[in-house]
Amino acid sequence: MNFVTKVTSALILSMGFANAAIYDVDASHTNVGFTVKHMMITNVNGNFATYDANIDFDPATKTFKTFSATVETNSINTGIEKRDDHLRSEDFFASEKFPKMTFEMTSYKADGDDGEMKGNLTIRGITKPVTLKVEDIGTIKDFKNQNRVGFSLKGKINRMDYDLKWNKALELGGVAVAEEVKITVEVEAVEK
């Protein structure tokens, strides 16, 4: 490879990352939520109040260069204290032993204002690959002239894969808590 080719390649590579920036999560406009069927007939919604993320995002191409997140399992909230205590127990998250769950992006495929994020989700020390749909990516300058990005992450997991195995059989068939958990995360982040 001659000198001109090397320099040209380096410039093209660097231009691809020129617009990428690091963003901090705006916790007052972000929600880390989930939904699971209860008694086979209704949805129970919940969220986690304490979390953090590392986001390297290119607004020009609407592409994530890196995305990783940490969620404190003890911060679970379904609106019912007794249920939340049960979810923190050994039957589910075992929050004392496993205080955090994590997500680490491994690849991202952009598709306009949407995309597909693949990564590794770790709960109770068990790591499994997951795919999240990224929807409605929007960028804007706020009142303080700061760059912001907003987007939704949606996916689903089987809680049994992560040893969240507690359940009770119902008399007429079915179980108290479904195995499938839907993940819905609404993120707003500010460029550093």
UniProtKB/TrEMBL annotation:
Residues 1-20 form the signal peptide. InterPro entries: Lipid/polyisoprenoid-bd_YceI (IPR007372), TTHA0802/YceI-like_sf (IPR036761). The keyword Signal applies. Keywords: Signal. SMART domains: YceI. Gene3D superfamilies: Lipid/polyisoprenoid-binding, YceI-like. Pfam families: YceI. The keyword Signal applies. It comes from the Bacteria. Residues 22-190 form the Lipid/polyisoprenoid-binding YceI-like domain. This is Polyisoprenoid-binding protein.
